[in-house]
Amino acid sequence: MSIESDSPAGSARLAGNPAPVAAGAGFADPAALGLAAFALTTFVLSFFNAGLIPRTAEGVVFGLALFYGGLVQFAAGLWEFAKGNTFGATAFCSYGGFWMAFAFLARFTDLSGAGADAEKGVGLFLLAWGIFTLYMTVAAWHTNTAVFAVFVVLTLTFFALSIGAFSAVAAMTRLGGWLGIVTALLAWYASFAVVANFTFKRTLLPVGPR
């Protein structure tokens, strides 16, 4: 998920001088962890949104949203900050925050007094995340094909779910669920590629050009 650029280290190496050690250079790539946490949590929730699993069992998502999609992904974002990757840090910390906010909204926020307007509030919540994801998609164009594909489909997912919440059209929510499943599978592939390519020390799974 890193975005490489010209650096003082590269210039020093070309000049034959010892390259300075970059801050956080000893960290492993946190992208695999962040993508995996995002993918698994999205996968489970999307099955409920798609209508494949009854809503009565939706409580299984909340622990994932708080701990794996939330705290673990947020931690991956902090490691991206340490590595100097603004894109990865912004993405993982933000979506970690999203999952924690989702868990709080679903479990601890009382919207019973809002009546039918509660769904409009949820629609606004999802719309705002769709807007954020849209501009992150523009930045993702300069990462790689796998990550860019994740952001494209995730943008469509948020907008479909938002329309479903605002309009109370169940078909749009189900569409958002299916798009979410595709998003999760793409994110899992990107995570798998990072882990496999590092472990095998070669490009076992391509992620596409930048």
TrEMBL record:
Ranges that cross the membrane: 31-53, 60-81, 87-109, 121-141, 147-171, 178-200
Domain of life: Bacteria
Compartments reported by the entry: Membrane
Annotated keywords: Membrane, Transmembrane, Transmembrane helix
Signal peptide: none
Membrane-topology descriptor: Multi-pass membrane protein
InterPro entries per record: AceTr (IPR051633), Gpr1/Fun34/SatP-like (IPR000791)
Family: Belongs to the acetate uptake transporter (AceTr) (TC 2.A.96) family.
UniProt-listed NCBIfam families: AceTr_1
Protein name: Acetate uptake transporter
